[in-house]
């Protein structure tokens, strides 16, 4: 027991020693700096990418339907009855009637494709699923969408392209409905008045059109109280996929059609996830290179300390204790590098926008609120553990070589 404690103490002293081979000390410091910078960079980059991912969730998946349930091929006459047949889904916090269609919006001589959504603000506001949209309104309010007013709220990008403002009139042409006439099928269309503009700071601003559900039903030529689907909101939009799987067996029996956000935006979020994995891999390789520099540094130390190793063996230190000694020495760099890297990474993440401004990065490039940053403690812990594991693996071979030192041969000329 005493020798084991001594092995730990000696190993730590060797790791922090300021004497010995100069080149070995340089490699030690270099590997420590590499681990420090690698851990810090991983924490900062992951925090920024987490922030972007969360922003995408809020600004895109907060607007588009996360999960809808429709009766195949026909409108829903009583959405409340349909809602009663569906159990509470995982992470669900609201369900509302839903109307949506693609279409074309016309302002003067300009035409733009749009996605039209009907909202029942008096019902949805009570459950707060439209809170995000209301918070990002630049002008107007969702409360201005009243039944029969034929008012609309459009995205900032769309308003800029069409050069329209609240109070202007636009013509909406719905692709999902039409009227048969002697000259053929005419698409359903109507004049609407802009009641507000929303800026979600995402690509949804280029095609989003919101109107009251009653007006949307009339545009789609549906009967009173008819809707197209039941729309579900979730605390985490990603759980909509689990909810769809939960509901799938019942949907197959009842003949319901399920649609999730992934049908339209799946490729975008897959690309974000792939980019995040590739960046993490490249930064992890930096940590790996720094960790495996410890191999060469330890081998030099072992060669330099052959006499000390032999003396410890003659004093009764067992191979396992000697093994522990050099593992501790190698791990000391990894531990110090990981701790300092974590501190630097957390500070860098928390003050990233201030640091970028200090280095002259223009505020316009970072957006009005700066780069989004989201620190996930579990992710930080994973990075630190991974860095320590790589360091531990790097110490195994040199430590094993140290145990193979023969005392008689090492002390032959002493």
UniProtKB/TrEMBL annotation:
The GO annotation for biological process reads: lipoprotein localization to outer membrane; lipoprotein transport
Occurrences of domain ABC3 transporter permease C-terminal (ranges): 281-404
- This protein's UniProt keywords: Cell membrane, Lipoprotein, Membrane, Transmembrane, Transmembrane helix, Transport
What region holds the MacB-like periplasmic core domain? 31-239
Record InterPro entries: ABC3_permease_C, Lipoprotein-release_system, LolCE_TM, MacB_PCD
Q: Which membrane topology describes this protein?
A: Multi-pass membrane protein
Cellular component aspect of the GO annotation: plasma membrane protein complex
Write out the annotated subcellular location. Answer: Cell membrane
The residue ranges crossing the membrane are 27-49, 281-302, 322-352, 373-397
Q: Which Pfam families match?
A: FtsX (PF02687), MacB_PCD (PF12704)
Family from the record: Belongs to the ABC-4 integral membrane protein family. LolC/E subfamily.
Q: Which PANTHER family does the annotation name?
A: LIPOPROTEIN-RELEASING SYSTEM TRANSMEMBRANE PROTEIN LOLC, LIPOPROTEIN-RELEASING SYSTEM TRANSMEMBRANE PROTEIN LOLE
What protein name does the entry list? Lipoprotein-releasing system transmembrane subunit, LolC/LolE family
Organism of derivation: Pseudidiomarina taiwanensis
């Amino acid at each position: 027991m005493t020798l084991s404690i001594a092995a730990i103490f000696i190993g730590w002293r060797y790791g922090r020693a300021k004497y010995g081979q100069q080149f070995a000390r340089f490699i030690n410091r270099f590997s420590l700096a590499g681990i420090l910078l690698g851990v810090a960079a991983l924490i900062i980059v992951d925090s920024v990418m987490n922030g972007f991912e969360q922003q995408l969730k809020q600004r895109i998946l907060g607007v588009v339907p996360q999960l809808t349930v429709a009766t195949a091929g026909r409108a829903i006459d009583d959405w409340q009855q349909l809602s009663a047949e569906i159990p509470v889904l995982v992470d669900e916090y609201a369900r509302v009637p839903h109307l949506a269609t693609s279409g074309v919006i016309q302002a003067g001589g300009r035409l733009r494709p749009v996605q039209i959504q009907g909202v029942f603000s008096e019902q949805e506001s009570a459950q707060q699923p439209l809170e995000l949209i209301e918070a990002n309104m630049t002008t107007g309010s969702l409360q201005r969408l009243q039944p029969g007013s034929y008012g609309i709220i459009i995205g900032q990008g769309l308003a800029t392209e069409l050069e329209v403002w609240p109070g202007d009139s636009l013509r909406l042409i719905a692709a999902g409905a039409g009227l048969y006439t002697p000259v053929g099928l005419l698409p359903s269309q109507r004049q609407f008045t802009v009641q507000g503009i929303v800026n979600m700071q995402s690509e949804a601003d280029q095609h989003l059109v919101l109107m009251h559900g009653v007006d949307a039903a009339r545009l789609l030529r549906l009967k009173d109280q008819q809707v197209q689907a039941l729309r579900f909101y979730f605390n985490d939009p990603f759980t909509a996929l689990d909810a769809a799987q939960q509901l799938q067996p019942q949907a197959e029996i009842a003949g319901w059609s399920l649609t999730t956000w992934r049908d339209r935006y799946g490729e975008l979020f897959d690309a974000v996830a792939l980019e995040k994995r590739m960046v993490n891999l490249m930064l992890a390789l930096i940590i790996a290179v720094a960790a495996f520099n410890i191999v060469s540094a330890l081998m030099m130390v072992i060669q330099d300390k052959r006499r000390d190793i032999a003396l410890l063996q003659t004093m009764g230190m067992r191979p396992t204790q000697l093994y522990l000694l050099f593992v501790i020495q190698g791990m000391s760099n990894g531990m110090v590098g990981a701790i300092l890297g974590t501190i630097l990474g957390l500070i860098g993440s928390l003050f990233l926008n201030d640091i970028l401004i200090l280095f002259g990065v223009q505020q316009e490039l970072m957006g009005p609120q700066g780069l989004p940053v989201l620190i996930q403690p579990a992710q930080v812990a994973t990075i630190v553990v991974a860095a320590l594991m790589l360091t531990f693996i790097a110490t195994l071979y040199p430590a094993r070589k140290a145990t193979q030192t023969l005392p008689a041969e090492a002390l032959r000329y002493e």
